[in-house]
Amino acid sequence: xxxxxxxPPKGYELVMEHIKKQIExxxxxxxxxxxxxxxxxxSYGVGRSTIREALSALKAMGWLDIRQGGGTxxxxxxxxxxxxxxxxxxxxxxxxxxxxxxxxxxxxxxxCASLAAVNRSEEDLRLLGEILExxxxxLDDEAASEQADVRFHLQIAKATGNSLLVQxxxxxxxxxxxxxxxxxxxxxxxERASAERLLDEHRxxxxxxxxxxxxxxGERMLKHLLKVENVLRKANAAGN
Length: 240
Prior knowledge:
One of its GO terms (molecular function) is DNA binding. Keywords: DNA-binding, Transcription, Transcription regulation. It holds the Pfam family FCD. Residues 9-77 form the HTH gntR-type domain. The protein is mainly alpha-helical. The protein folds into 2 domains: 12-74, Winged helix-like DNA-binding domain superfamily/Winged helix DNA-binding domain (Arc Repressor Mutant, subunit A), CATH 1.10.10; 91-239, Four Helix Bundle (Hemerythrin (Met), subunit A). It has 9 helices and 2 strands, in the order αααββαααααα. It is globular and about 50 Å long. The N and C termini lie far apart (47 Å).
């Protein structure tokens, strides 16, 4: 993979956008294995942590597949592609409205949380717990915490055991990634306490799923997303 160093380095977003454009242009076709983190860091002239953040973001958005110990590959089916098995490929990429994204999330994710509480496995709980620990350690790292946030919500969908819900959440993940970034800039990272309150809300959803209380898990997820919606409403009112 040929890449021109980005000078001066401006963080993971530049790397992420450059790799994404290479995928979109066909320079990195589906199934292509990317260079190692070390080699990419050297090519772009940034640190390894910046590369990892970029790759994690692209994975959350559906562009990459990161295999533990096996490397990073361009997804064989890219975001926006629609097949008979994945009819939601473009459904959640047609809106720039944060409000519309949140309306879909309220309906979809409260249901996912309820079903996950019923169907979750011990492995699902372990993975959700690990993500929460990561979020706790990243309270001062906005970009990395944002990525962990997206993974937490995706893992809840996986814990439902329903492949259709997983496909819908994966299709929504690109819009989730963008909307979370905007919403965090509005409020969550105005102060550390806000980030800690957000983490507590995620923990409360996890506890209900762990207790296999589907009704409570759905209620807590909806309550969490209603708070997020309220942040957006206040921001919109302030801008008018």
